[in-house]
Specification:
alpha+beta; Alpha-Beta Plaits; 2 domains; three-stranded antiparallel beta sheet; 3 helices; binds zinc ion
């Protein structure tokens, strides 16, 4: 697995699938990796579960505070990052929490 420090993304290819930059190094267990992006109304729930599972994580608001006050916090989205060594575990949690509602749109 390679790692893009700009996008916080591990990937298995020559170039980062997001920014197109050539991979410079292998992913390390302590690299922060993008986990998921959720609406702010769900982010608190996800943060609670990650804390319960003792998975350290980092939250980043996508739009930023200046824009949020103008359009309202309901539209704010939050990105979650976790360490690579816990990425698989954290992804399972995200899927457990969010996949059911997303799949119901397709069927
Ligand atoms: Zn990238």
């Amino acid at each position: 697995m390679r790692y893009c420090p700009r996008c916080c993304l591990p990937f298995d290819a020559d170039r980062c699938p997001v920014c197109g930059k050539k991979s410079e190094r292998d992913v390390a267990p302590d690299d922060l990796c993008f986990l998921t992006e959720q609406a702010q109304i769900w982010s608190g729930m996800l943060a609670d579960v990650l804390t319960q599972e003792q998975i350290p994580f980092l939250q980043k608001n996508v739009l930023g505070a200046g824009i949020t006050t103008r359009i309202g916090p309901m539209l704010e989205r939050v990105r979650f990052y976790v360490f690579y060594r816990q990425l698989a575990e954290a992804k399972d949690i995200v899927e457990g929490l969010f996949s059911a509602s997303e799949e119901s749109d397709e069927t």
